[in-house]
Structure formats: C-alpha cells, structure tokens
C-alpha cells in the first residue's frame, strides 16, 4: 500500500500561519492596553505626589493652590481620555479575539479532515496487512 499523503497540508500550514498572525495582532493590542494602564498609573502617581508635596510644604501660596487645582483638572481630563482609549482598546481586543477564534477554528477543521483521512488510511492499511497475512497462511496450507 502506498504511503499516506494529504493534499491539503499546504492549506493547513496557511491556516496556521493566518492564526499566528491574528495571535500577534492580539498580543500587540494587549501590549497597547498595558501601556494605557501604565500611563494611567503614572498619572495617578504624579497627582498623588503633587498633592503630598503641597501638603508637606509649610508655606503654600495661592499660586501653588491654583497650580495644583489646574493640575488636578488636567489629570481628571487625562484620566477620562485614557479611560476612553482603554475602552476602545478593549473593544478591539474583543473583536480580535473573535477573529483569532475563527482562524483557529478554520485551521482545526482542516486538521480534523486530515485526522479522519489518516484514520481511514490506517484502517485500510490494517485490512490489507490482515488480508496479506491470511493469504500467506492459506498459501502455506495449500502447498
């Protein structure tokens, strides 16, 4: 019997490559999300540091208080901007996760076809081996 060959191996490789490309896109989106989170944490830390610095100062002027108020307004606006950016990134991650699942599913479908064909080939191979063994056994008894 001839060796097992599957004509769609290149298609499987292509689908796996597409799935890997989707994985890379998802990884980039997660990196972007971590960057947004880091910016938000840094912003909060700077705000807290500025407040503590003003509180620790023995002589605070009205200018210092006004500057702190302006900085607090800035940080609130920046936090809202980061929250919106984070939400948009979360939506992109959800969409990319769906795209990745679809690509993986496409690759898995062809892999299952290959597995079924391989199982059928193995069964046929076993039948042929059994048949040859039977013929050899019968030939031994006939002669």
Question: What can you see in these coordinates?
Answer:
By secondary structure, this protein is mostly helical. The protein has one domain (9-113). It has two helices and no strands. It has helices at residues 9-56, 62-142.
Number of strands: 0
- Radius of gyration based on Cα positions: 33 Å
What's the story with the biggest beta sheet? none
Average the pLDDT over all residues and give the rounded result: 92
The total tally of domains equals: 1
- How many DSSP H or I helices? 2
Task: Write a compact overview of the structure shown.
With about 140 residues, the chain is mainly α. It has two helices and no strands.
Secondary-structure map:
Blueprint: H1 9-56, H2 62-142
Helix pairs in contact: 1-2
Pick out its properties.
2 helices; rod-shaped; 143 residues; mainly alpha
């Amino acid at each position: 019997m001839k060796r097992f060959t599957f004509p769609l191996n290149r298609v499987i490789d292509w689908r796996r490559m597409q799935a890997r490309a989707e994985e890379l896109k998802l990884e980039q989106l997660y990196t972007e999300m971590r960057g947004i989170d880091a910016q938000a944490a840094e912003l909060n830390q700077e705000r807290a540091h500025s407040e503590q610095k003003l509180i620790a100062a023995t002589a605070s002027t009205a200018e210092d208080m006004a500057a702190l108020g302006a900085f607090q307004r800035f940080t609130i606006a920046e936090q809202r901007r980061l929250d919106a950016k984070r939400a948009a990134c979360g939506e992109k991650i959800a969409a990319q996760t769906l795209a990745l699942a679809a690509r993986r599913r496409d690759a898995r479908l062809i892999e299952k076809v290959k597995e079924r064909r391989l199982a059928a080939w193995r069964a046929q191979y076993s039948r042929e081996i059994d048949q040859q063994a039977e013929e050899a056994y019968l030939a031994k008894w006939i002669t």
